Please model this.
Amino acid sequence: MAIGAGKTYKVPIGPVHVGLKEPITAWLDVDGERIVNATIRPGAIHRGIEFMARERNPIQVIYLAERICGICSFSHIVAFVRAVEDAAKIPVPARAQYIRTIVLELERIHSHILWAGVACYTFGYDSAFHLGMILREKVMDVLEALTGNRVNYGTGTVGGVRRDITPKVEKALREMIAFYKSEFSFFYNVAVDDPVALARMRNVGVLSKEDAISHCALGPTARGSGLRVDLRWSAPYEAYADLDVKPVVPQDYTGEAYGDVYDRFLVRVLEVYQSLDIIEKCLDGLPEGDLMWEPKLPKLLNYLKQADGIGMCSIEAPRGDDTHAIKLTGGEENVTWWKVRAPTYSNAVSWPIMFKGNDVADAPLIINSIDPCISCMERMLVTDVRKGSKQVVTRAELLQSCREKTRRLMGA
Model:
């Protein structure tokens, strides 16, 4: 096939690829080395978490929500418990709101540093990747000191939090803030001065402001395109209403937003500094008071059992808008239904636009630039093709089909 003659051929990438941290399959229509079109399919890692929630009460579902994503585990917990609190009309003490905010920002720092390191690794800047992994240890140590865990912190609960900011933890937090303000400048320099980073990221994976709007981009992906969108600013929750948080957009620092990988890198690096300032403000203004609305679990469970209604919450997770909706039915202990919409749902729609006009070698960097989490977004629709229809099978039919398959596999 002649190269550059207007004819294309397909180049598959994924689902297992050295440059991808998530199982994504991309079929690239390529003319020479230039991508002219792309078809994307997320990976097959559906776990049925929303389905499992229907067999559990809201307190038990917290531990499912926490495991939707390892990097955004606390974001999912806060979105879930706030949805429950909305449905059950449960107030949250001010001190608990501030502690939730601190942990959310610690998680944002953790996520952004990890992403920046992986981005550098993707375009071959291994020394920056290794430095990122070293820098990330500091925030992980602080999370462990506060919650006892480095991932899946077990801190949030309906009506408040389960861990307090002790003087020892506060000292660790302030030491961490001083450490990052001193040592994180390397990644800032990568974002603004490094010629290697500039050559590999500028004008790569461009998502214009107009395309970001029409394709519902969220979080750092949208802000990298120049959109001032941030739920901490436009719809503040927890302690954010007291903190005057402003969206970080590249045009405020460079004069223009190109909407490329470089701008998405810059936004995340700058948000690390923003998160440090937020944590410091929370520590300075941390109110006294209770950690939970109702500290005794049996009473809380009985109250939730009588709650009847639908609750919803959207928060600004590290990747963007994370939305949870839940239905509680009075007299029933278990959750009636629960739906999660993670930010990758919206951001992944923009991949085909970002691919066009770029080289094949840029594909992994473009995919990673939205910081995708397929574990967060993966869902499945079950149909019975043997019946020759697109009708979705019922819950009972799905369970029966699973049992039959298990018997076949076991040779029963």
Notes: Residues 123 and 200 are 7 Å apart (CA to CA).
